[in-house]
Amino acid sequence: MSRRDFLTLGMSAVGLLGMLQMGGMTLQFLGPRRVEGEFGGLVEAGLAASFPPASVTEFPDGRFFLARTSDGGFLAVSRRCTHLGCAVSWEASQNQFACPCHGSHFDLQGDVQNPPAPRPLDTYPISVRDGVLVVDTAKAIPRDQIAPEQLLYV
Ligand code: FES
C-alpha cells in the first residue's frame, strides 16, 4: 500500500467516524425525552390513600390529571384535548374539564360532555409501587369511549 493510499484510507475512516457520531447525536436529539418525574417518563403521583374519592389532582410537570371516581377508581387523564390538542383545565365548580379553545367539556373520567371533541381524553397507565401510584406518561392510551376496566382500583 502506498503512502498516499494509506493516508486516503485513514482520512476516509476518520470522516466516516465523524459522520456516524453526528448521526448518533442527531437521533438522540430528535428522540423522545424521558426524564423521571416529568412528562415523557414515570411520574410518582403519591400514596393512593391521599387522594379522596370524587377528586381531581393536576400534575403540571406530568401534563395529566389524576382523577379518582366516587367509588374509588383511579384514572390518569391526559390534559391534551382530543379536538385540536389544547390543554384542558379542571373546573372544580362545574365538576368538569374545560377546553379554552373551542369549548369542549369532559366529565371527571374524561368523557365528552360537549363537542367538538370527537372522543374522550386519553389516559396513561398507572402502576402501584409500595402503595404509591406511578403514572407512565410515555404511553398515552386513546379511547373511543369510557369503560369500567379503564379504572384502577387499589
Ligand atoms: S382544541 Fe379543545 S375544543 Fe378544540
Short description:
This is Plastoquinol--plastocyanin reductase. This protein is of the alpha+beta class.
Unique ligands = FE2/S2 (inorganic) cluster
Beta strand count: 11
Number of helices: 1
Question: Helicity level, as a percent range?
Answer: 10-25%
Shape call: elongated
Biggest sheet character: 4 strands, antiparallel
Neighbour order of strands in the largest sheet = 2-3-4-9
Unreliable parts: none
| CATH homologous superfamily title of the largest domain | Rieske [2Fe-2S] iron-sulphur domain
Whole-number count of domains: 2
The CATH topology of the largest domain: Rieske Iron-sulfur Protein
Q: What is the arithmetic mean of pLDDT?
A: 91
Structural class: alpha+beta
CATH class of the largest domain: Mainly Beta
CATH 2nd-level architecture of the largest domain: 3-layer Sandwich
SSE order = HEEEEEEEEEEE
Proportion of residues in extended strands = 25-35%
Cofactor: [2Fe-2S] cluster
Keywords: 2Fe-2S, Disulfide bond, Iron, Iron-sulfur, Metal-binding
GO cellular component, one term: membrane
Domain Rieske: 43-135
